[in-house]
Batch of 4 targets.
Target 1
Amino acid sequence: MSTLDQFRKETHDWLVANCPASMRTPQKRSEGVYGGRRASFPNDDAKLWMDRMVEKRWTAPDWASEYGGGGLSAEETKILAQEMEALGCRKPIVGHGFWMLGPALLEYGTEEQKLEHLPKIARGEIRWCQGYSEPGAGSDLASLRCKAEDKGDHFVLNGQKSWTSDGDKADWIFCLVRTNDEGKKQEGISFVLFDMETPGVSVRPVPLITGESHFCDTFLDNVVVPKSQVVGEINKGWSVAKALLVHERTMMSQIERNMPKPKFSTIDYAKNYLPLNDDGTIKDALMRNRLANHLMRDQSIKLSQQRAFEEGMAGTFDMRVSTIFKYISTEEKTAKDSMVADMMGMTGAGWDTDRFTFDEYTKTYEWMSNKALTIAGGSSEVQLNLVSKRGLGLPEK
Amino acid sequence: MPLALNEEQRMLRDTAREFLQNNAPVSLMRELRDSGDSKGYSDAVWQQMIELGFPAVAIPESYGGLGFGYLGAGAILEEAGKTLAHSPFYSTVALGAAAITLGGTEEQKQSLLAAIAAGELTLAMAHEESNHHQPNTVSLSASASGDNYVLNGKKLFVAEGAIAHKLLVSARTQGNNNDQDGITLFLVDRNSEGVSCQTSTMIDSRNYADIEFNNVKASAANIIGTVNQAFTILDKTFDYGRICLAAEMLGGAQTMFDKTVEYLKDREQFGQKIGSFQALQHRAAKMFAELELTRSAVVGALAAIDDDSDNLPIMASLAKTRANDTYRLITDEAVQMHGGIGLTDEMDIGFYLKRCRVSIHSLGDSGFHTDRYATLHGI
């Protein structure tokens, strides 16, 4: 048996022995575990599962052990993910620390910063949020104006951040601030970390069309941040920000894999909610065509992700291709959510859990909430700019 | 199912690329067309392909082949698609050798596959009877006469039909015209008595023929597979063909895309490169995404052949639909983005546009394959 086969077997056995049965059931949207100082768990099993994975160091399996990770290779990390998926294991803990800040710190952080922050992320002790957008800086992120005044050994921050995901629940924030007003707008930005309990930080949740308020406006009023909390060089935060956006896009490209496994497939929705012929096929020819097209697109995207991984391993991957994934995955996901809602007809517009099942309500919710996927992390239009400029090398105006 | 080419397959692809770019560039296709050549390919180039071992790539080593599998054959076809290099390769290897491998007796495989691998035998698939691909529609009749059969009927749009040494002919031995049961596959010499060909000129300048069978005698020994039960072999053979054709189309789409991006970086209007206009950039970016998705579907489908996957029909319909839609999108956009010169004969774009159109309607357009894909998923 090869070493990897051996690893796969041991991983499988460990997961079977340690993942509580209830953590191998489909996860509801409200049951995510994010950790942090004010960590909450949907039930005792969720806490037990997180604690066991933390102890095994598999919450951040590919980080080095001195940073709280499991020190696994890329192949081993993939095997772990595959085995967890095969057994239907829930993610023990998720959040911005794992898939955004962590990778960026590994690349740009000082040794002290890595040792201070990464283990706390891996152990689920600190929950992070992101301070990027501002009221006047959305797609044109580099025009951000949140001011950081140099006071020798520290900065004083003043300004406002928008769309801070779970800003009211997070412990620390990674934040882009303006440290220089002169020259190219990208060259006066710094990437800073600070505690959300620092005096002068206040948050206000913003209700969305779903009725929920995952996003906050974050106000900074004379917030003191020591210079030791700058990641990368001062005025060179844009590089860190872009690297982190790549991680964000990677995560959003694998949106389906990173979301709880759906209870029903799109075919199930078609069969359960659409008028059918006697042989069980869909009566509406256009809807049948629409579903077939989505199934084909889904399959093509999955094959492309698999091919990218395998070519990466073989050293033959064309990096230009990586620019397309966020665009195609999120466009497909939102179009599919819209299709499923259409399949459900009037039920797909239901908005309570008495008349409608929880699952039906969730589908209506997802149709609305997933509209954010083609906007957040660089809108589809921004992605197409990236593909054409970085991927294809088309000229600037 | 591996989706990245291994080192051997990459070397084969590179060999094919170098050979075809140097010996069968698009200018060769133009010369053949201008000279009114009826075959659409150069015998000399085909001979060199034989010497390089191309016809042997997908044939198992036990039958005189090289055993590179269909990922190997697909790599050659993709490169051929880039330069529009036509040859008997597709009809003989992708379709013909497939039918014999899938349905032939040990004896047939020993003799026929070895001859194909050595470049001594070319085949054509004589199946369609209408202007659309219909795998189970067969009315050409084969009636038993002692140990032999007598074929009567007509086949349309047979690629290499006027040139190949032998024809694989689907015939009705039982049932009604659209029944899956009752189809038998015969191997018939093209020069047999009673076979008459009328060639059709098609926009891709390759050779196609309508073939009439008038009391053509076929020996029972030349049946491929079981009497009345050929549909399974036939449809699987078509799947191999659909996937290989998709590989060729991918090559054409890739070339048209590369040429168009090149043009966007070069052409100036309003005092700037037209590639700096967002209206064109976003369309180019979308084409790139479609092209990459198509590549994954095609490579996945080729791998499904090599793995003898149960998923083969689904993968074939996926790959052909994607290749149809993407090649069409990219050739249409290539013309539009080049503007007026895109419509001149001097540019090569028109050749790809025309080849694309014929390829789309060979072995199933996207309507056919989307419907089939849906049916295979039980919807």
Note: Chain B has a mean pLDDT of 96.
Target 2
Amino acid sequence: MRPIEAWLFWITTGLYVVAFAATLLGMVFQRPVWRSVGLAAVTAGLAANTGAVAARWVLSGHLPVGDGYELNLSGSWVAMVVVVGVVLLAPRLRPLMVGAMPPVILALGIGITSPTAIGPLSAAYDSGWLAVHVVFAFLSFGCFVLAFSAGAIYLSESWGATVRVRAGLPEGDALEDLSYRMVVAGFIFEAVMIASGAIWANDLWGSYWSWDPVEVWSLISFLVYALYLHLRTFAGWRGRRSAAVAVLGLVFVFLSFWGVQWLVPTVHDFNQF
Amino acid sequence: MESSPEIMRLFAPLVRALYSTRTTVAVVAAFTLLCVAGSMLPQAGTVGDSALDLWRSDHPIVTAVAEPLGLFEAFSSIPFMVLLAALAVNMVACTTRRTILARKARGGAAAALGGSLVLHVGLLALLAGGVVTAGSSIDGRIVATEGQVIDLSREEQYLDLRRGVWADGALPGYALGVESSRPVSDGGVSTAVESVLAVAEPGAETVSRSLGVNRPVRLEGVVLTHADWGFSPLLTVVSPAGEVLVDAYVALMSVHGGDAGAYEDVVEAPGLPGTVRLRLLPDFRLHDGAAVSVSPEARNPAIVVEFLGEDGSVVESGTAVLGSEVAVGGYNFAFGDLRRWTAVRVRADSGRFVVYAGFVIGLLGLLIRYAPASWTAVRGRRSPSDEENA
């Protein structure tokens, strides 16, 4: 990793941490100035993240998705485009950053603990489907972290949290409804991710589905959200139960991308060139 | 004799159960749990038999539970098939009901129901495609060294060959030769090998096709994908009595690749004593008296011949660089040439087109059903196709 990359990475991470802290303080103390600081920090953080991705792209000469560090860096960028896009389009949703930032910061943390040296791009990654697959994976991640955030805030309030965390968010069940709609968007993106991965796999390995553990866990997280949609739509699961499943869903997403490869052997080893 | 309304009343609970949300949730939840188990346990076919046996002996309690449920072959087990069948029946029932409801619905509700209908038709197409793949596909691997020609219709040429339960047709009758293989590099480092294949259909002229990672060769009825590659040294072995025991390119497949490039295999031939292991060092150097490879590039290839004892330890060994020979245990080993082998996956699968159609239909259904809802989340409006209408 070159110094310029390291600087941009740590500025990105630092600004995202500041954005999280400022948003949280703005909610706890009901001070609009903190919320403004949070928005400024996350916007600047996204700019630095863009710089870090661009620097890596230029220095490596390939789309920066070739190893664990690059995937987490670029993936965080895509997810934050979703998060920042949503809070800029709908300022009332800014408090969602408080729940959305930690998973993204965690992803960056996982990335920086992976080998960061620039290496050759694996021939397996030399495919046009790679960009589609990765971008849609992290678009879904961005939506799911927002769904997680809305669900977690709804749960914390419904369980009697004393902190007035809502701070302008939609009232009552509308917050949980917002979580549902973010799940819906993430669900569509995840479907595209799975479909594009299958088509790519057919060219790469000769079959569109091999029951590899990471493939299976992508399907599992998809099924968990499918269950969520069925339970909410047809079984009347609203409020706490629905929010709890939206929160739980992100755990499955994390296991799919960051967990399984550490537990069992898989051809989707993101830390290998 | 019972009247038809009474029969309908009798079967009404069963029909309701077929399309009920409870059935859907129960089946999807069970399917999800089975997937979790299948992904966490070693699966027969993806790990070697000995590795699976070792795992079983190390985990007797888990094995006692998993074995009777078929969880070591989770994705072809009977519970898995039953769940897939239940899922298909449930989806057919739901789709039928939605079709009936959609005819009566109007406005946003009709759009939501229509989207849901299209989505479930897409999912059924996915399942149907999977069944076609499992039942009718032919899937095998062949290995060919540069210069070698293989007849794809001869089963004995395959390393492994699997046929679906109703795939009893003949293998495609192509003659396949590997004309050449060259490394593909990124930043001066080899990342893969690309091969030029000479493909001849029965009675037709031979054509050259390039096969590489992510660049399959599509022929009529069969797709060839690049599965693996390695080195094949030309080995000539002469016994102490002067008899030529081996004179062939030996594809080193047991171990191949890695950062420094390690390639090895056991050489078996009548007249060779015990176990003879052949290792290839692509970029040979002597380091503290030991033969090592300093890179995976074939800059200074050498073979190491090792006679192994019964306990697997090396009894006697010798090293020969390209174009030289070495005597080990009284046998003469000559290293005359170095070529590359390419492993090609040969697959005939008509189910994939049905699966791809399922993807397109399903995604279209998802968009019709849900896109307005997610967009209005950001814009702060409620969509007329909200879930209440479904």
Note: Chain B has seven helices and 17 strands.
Target 3
Amino acid sequence: MQEISTYPLIYISENPLQPEAVIDLVKSDHCGGIDVFIGTVRNQTKGKTVVRLDFESYDKMALREMEKIARKAREKWPIDKIAIHHRKGSLAIGEIAVIIAVSTPHRKASFEACQFAIDTLKETVPIWKKEIFEDGEVWVAAHP
Amino acid sequence: MKITLVSFGIAKDIIGSREMEYELPDSASVGNLLEKLAHDYPDFKDLTSIRVAVNTEYAKNDQVISPQDEVVLIPPVSGG
């Protein structure tokens, strides 16, 4: 396993994400709060059983867009550190797809910044997930 | 001019390959590219949206494309 200290703040990986490592990345003596969002793979969509999710990423641009989210969040809230890690490849039910961790002096800002980061990621970062069902597969959000 | 068009997600499925050479008029814009794609690949009309990134930035329809640009089709994203 990779040494915790070598993970970057903004990161895309085919390997399982490490919540402890992401929390360590944003720990700070200046901060009274760390908010962490962990997105996991759900076993159903609209009542249909999901077998697994396949994530595909345009890495170069996705990393840039994730950096932009971190930068915009820093403009809005007094953030000490923000880390965004996203998984790609084939994920089983229950596996972690994304981790966002934010440290701020007081808790309110960390909650707000973390929500902003995940909401914006879902709109702007070029990563796609395909839901694999027992009887087919579909790219999420592709069709109205 | 010939550009290299890279596609992800459902755009890759519609086109049938990750990368393809695509012929466009010289000084074509992103809008011209989308119009030609909709003509050549009617399935794009069924998508919620389709955006184009030029050199890793979302591009507006009036942006002019050069042959050496990195042009990527961005169907509706669904990370997280």
Note: Chain A touches chain B at residues 39, 55-58, 60-62, 64, 86, 97-98, 118, 121-130, 139-144 (CB under 8 Å).
Target 4
Amino acid sequence: MIEFKDVTKSYPGSDTPALADFSLQMEHGEFIFLVGPSGAGKSTLIKLFFREQLPTEGQILFDGKNIATFEKAALLKHRRQIGMVFQDFRLLKQKTVFENVAFALEVLGKSAKEIQEKVPLALAKVGLADKGSSFPAELSGGEQQRVGVARALVKDPLILIADEPTGNLDRDTSWQLMELFETINQGGTTVIVATHAWDVVDRMQKRVISLEAGHLNRDEKRGSYRDEH
Amino acid sequence: MNINSLKYCLRQSVVSLKRNFWLAVVTSCIIAVSLAILGGFLLMAVNAGQLIRNVESNVEIGVFLYADADVSAVQKQINSLEGVNSVTFVSKDEGLVTFSNSLGDPALLAGLKGEDNPLPDAYRVKATDTALVAGLAESIRAMPGVEMADYGEELVGRILKITGWLNTLFVGISVLLALGAVFLIVTTIRLSVMARLEEIGIMKYLGASDWYIRFPFLLEGMAMGWVGTLVSTIALGLAYSKLATSLRQDAFAFFIRPVTSVEQLAPIFVGLLLLGTLMGGIGSLISVRKFLRV
């Protein structure tokens, strides 16, 4: 379980906190949409959970443990349980699709044998089994994002976090990506998606956590992008 | 870090070195030059030490007596001193002959024989140990009938002074060059870090450890340091052995016997190798600390 307890995050030089007195609980295996206008605090929330930053006040508990207290080894273990997907894909241009996905295992010191086994499986999961030898520039935006998802998936994360994954994609491609996320979620992985794609959110009827100006605005089990009440 | 990670790090270092090939070459060259100068100074210091020891081990104390001195009493006194190895009497006549011969033309001083001989009677005293020479000279000077006791302090002192001055100069130049080399390494590694900034950002999100990210840069810096040092030690070794051989064959430089013992030279060359590698490592650590917030 992931728990935010009265978390406030202020950045130096800014009067209003990016996240203010924020509390939330998420269970393993959930599918959650983080919605809200730009600057509402979605990215801050993700950075805090990845422990790229520490909260100014409050605690973030992962399975009961305060992640702020993690020493180096525990922090690495924490981060390795999280697969990240980015709006701008963040693929390495000079590496092939296969190498980009393999990279996630390489940095964890996995053997060549394990890499040869797992990468094709991950690519198959995202529907790119035949694109391993292509370079990112040769792929469409949707395909590139799938490579990003395969890279996040290949290390079997407990949690998949996607920050605006459809920001650079057209509607059909966005929808296909969300279907992929749902499939991944059905396999037991917690999926957290920060997004502006209101139509997708409305259609999927998942838990919606809405942020506005750093505050929790709404938390609905089967919610939609806008407040309908 | 396991073997897979190590392979990755090595590969990354090679890629980076290739990418910044000429800068790496220049950096290695600067390291080579600075260490060659430092090594040259160390070799010189070792040889100067040997030269001083040679001079010292050959020193005799020249004891010159007053004209009215009791020659046999002085000899007795000198013999009774501890640390005296041999005492040779050189009469004023023998002294004159030696002196005349050293001038090349014995006829020059022919008129100074007998009563006109201005030279004093003298003893040549050898010590059992060079360290005792100064003390012996001191004691002998205090004896009645002894005008002076001299063992060439000036020569030894002058050698010490010159080598001391050269040492300071060379150390100064070496330190400046070494600092320059480290700075160049910092710059080169910075370029490598910049070239891989995107990759490093991704690696952090993929859960790579700090050392996994830093290690290739450390290896890269150490490789530059090591190559530079290797070049300088080889060049220095060749130059030194050539110089040593020619000095040994040169009859006029018979008193300079270059140090060739492995026990004395090995620490210098091994030390240089370690120092160069260390400089590379330090340079890249500075760079990584400064430009890589992991």
Note: The CA atoms of residues 237 and 269 of chain B lie 8 Å apart.
